[in-house]
Amino acid sequence: MAPSASVREAYGKTLVELGRQNPDIVVLDADLSRSTMTHLFASEFPERIFDCGIAEQNMVGIAAGLAASGKIPFASTFSVFIPGRCFDQVRMSIAQPQRNVKLVTTHSGITVGEDGTSHQAIEDLALACALPGLTVVVPADANETAQVIRMAAATEGPFYIRLCRPSLPLVHDEDYRFELGKTTVMREGARATIIAIGTMVA
Q: Where in the numbering of this chain does the Transketolase-like pyrimidine-binding domain appear (predicted)?
């Protein structure tokens, strides 16, 4: 069985790496930095992280304003809150004007079963994919997550990057190279085709 690693930790560590390289990268969180792992960025760059409290719509608006001012904001919370609670703000302030905001959410799908239905994001992909101009990516493991975060930081335009809570088996080795819009064949076969994203790949 493949070793497992946390996609959330890969996100947090990659943010720190990018923050050292680019002073324009800033991070926003909605009182969940220990869960989304943005606290790793906060520890090194306390002046470049903004905790917006339990006010996700406000966080999205602030991120849009920072992007309009030339910053590269990464805004994080649980997947159930973005785009669910913030759909109008994401639509009007980020997707339509094509603001360079990276929305990175965690605790997606039913991987947070113990938190109850209020925290199970099962509609977020449908909402995000309905917005023209919003690039949606669901990494399959920690290696892919790190590459996706680096790619998003270097690519102009809005992103919705969906991560899960549990650690995932490493299905990609360190030689794997993520390409936006390209599929990866995990196993060849002739009898059936299974298409999967994120946690389903493992």
A: 5-170
Q: Nearest 10 degrees: CA dihedral of 9, 75, 151, 180? A: 100
CA atoms of 8 and 105, how far apart (whole Å): 9
Whether residue 164 contacts residue 107, with contact meaning beta carbons closer than 8 Å, is answered with: yes
Catalytic residue among 44, 56, 144, 156: 56
Q: Is 56 a catalytic residue?
A: yes
Q: Give residue 50's pLDDT.
A: 98
d(CA 143, CA 81): 25
* The pair of three-digit structure tokens given for residue 38, joined into one six-digit string: 């943005």
Rounded Cα distance between 154 and 165, Å, is 25
Q: What is the mean pLDDT of residues 90-111?
A: 97
Computed over every residue of the chain, the mean pLDDT equals 95
Q: How many CA atoms lie within 13 A of 15 on its CB side?
A: 32
C-alpha to C-alpha distance for 22 and 107, rounded to whole angstroms: 27
**Structure confidence at residue 117 (pLDDT):** 85
Residue 5: left if φ>0, alpha if ψ -120 to 50, beta else—which one?
A: beta
CB atoms within 10 A of CB 119: 17
Query: Would you call 189 exposed, middle or buried from its count of C-beta atoms within 10 A (0-12, 13-18, 19+)?
Result: exposed
How many CB atoms sit inside 10 A of residue 200's CB? 11
Per-residue model confidence (pLDDT) at position 1: 59
Sorted by where each begins, the domain ranges of the chain are 4-201
What CATH number labels 4-201?
A: 3.40.50.970
